[in-house]
Write a structure and sequence with these properties.
- This protein is α+β, with helices and mostly antiparallel strands.
- 17% of the residues lie in helices and 39% in strands.
- A hairpin with a 6-residue loop joins β6 and β7.
Length: 298
């Protein structure tokens, strides 16, 4: 076997191996369903928080020293549950077997009285399609609900999650009565809401969607209402390369006392999972070793 043949064969082998390595990286970074809520998770309705007039959950804003809606009237009655990044809204147990989800709640009865109708956040037992159910009344409500990266399907420690051209986030509504919402993404330490304001079953491509920062810091109850969000949806979703959570925010800004509702029986996110740097480093070292071998043969 002559030296020229060996040189050419080694070059082809090295190029082939590097191509395989690159192909592996690309395949490992392809889009995947990382959230897939939807199924039979409870055998009976499981209340997360009930705040009807008989529940004594509402307190006057003046007692808290906060004017949540910024209308200058601190006699408004509010009920709140601070956002927690550590504690899910409902724990997985014998009563709930679905994916963990997190969030908070802020509802304001804007005329200084508590509506007598039923208001709640709960898991409703609806056959094979149990729902994250919300019903509110009066003027303002903001209820963020999200799934965290630690519970994403198919994402290993050290791997990152990002948007890509083939990404999608979808919400399926079993019932929607004036129940507007925006899609929610945590990228790094910050939360963002979508420019798209949906009212029923809908989906977005987060890569092409524009977003606005949404301040729901861990441990606070000052969750922004829709009225507090300005028309500044200028953050491209294509810049989200460190996704830590995905979900939606139920938003209400109306004076109607009717029972507005949003019951979610399906929620999914299709995002790109990027291999951890160590795995990419090993592939790179393999390629360098092959190149070194080719040089030695020469």
């Amino acid at each position: 076997m002559n030296a020229y043949f060996v040189k050419c064969s080694t070059r082809r082998l090295g190029s082939y191996a590097i191509g395989v390595a690159v192909g592996l990286v690309v395949s490992q970074a392809s889009a995947a369903v990382v959230i897939n809520y939807g199924g039979d998770y409870v055998s009976a309705n499981q209340t997360i928080l009930s705040f009807s007039s008989s529940d004594n959950a509402f307190v006057e804003e003046s007692t808290l020293g906060i004017d949540f809606s910024g209308d200058g009237d601190t006699t408004d009655m509010v009920v709140s549950r601070a956002v927690s990044l550590a504690n899910p809204l409902i724990a997985t147990s014998v009563d709930y077997t679905g994916p963990l989800f997190y969030g908070g709640l802020l509802v304001e009865d804007g005329d200084g009285t508590i509506d007598s109708g039923s208001q709640y956040l709960r898991i409703d037992n609806v056959g094979a399609a149990d729902e994250i159910a919300i019903i509110t009344r009066k003027s303002h409500a903001a209820i963020p609900i999200f799934f965290q990266k630690a519970d994403f399907t198919g994402v290993n420690p050290g791997e990152s999650v990002k948007t890509a051209a083939d990404s999608s986030i979808s919400l399926g509504a079993g019932r929607s009565v004036n129940g507007a919402y925006r899609f929610l993404i945590q990228n790094g330490l910050n939360f963002y809401v979508s420019e798209t304001l949906a009212s029923n079953t809908d989906s977005i491509n987060p890569f092409t969607e524009n977003f606005q920062q949404y301040d729901i810091a861990d441990g606070t109850v000052d969750i922004p209402f829709n009225a507090e969000l300005g028309p500044t949806y200028t953050v491209p979703g294509s810049t989200f390369t460190d996704i830590q959570a995905v979900g939606y925010v139920y938003l209400k800004n109306a004076t109607s006392s009717s029972g507005d509702a949003l019951d979610v029986n399906a929620f999914s996110a299709n995002l790109t999972v990027v291999p951890e740097p160590a795995a990419l480093g090993l592939l790179g070292l393999g390629g360098l070793a092959l190149l070194g071998k080719r040089r030695r043969v020469r």
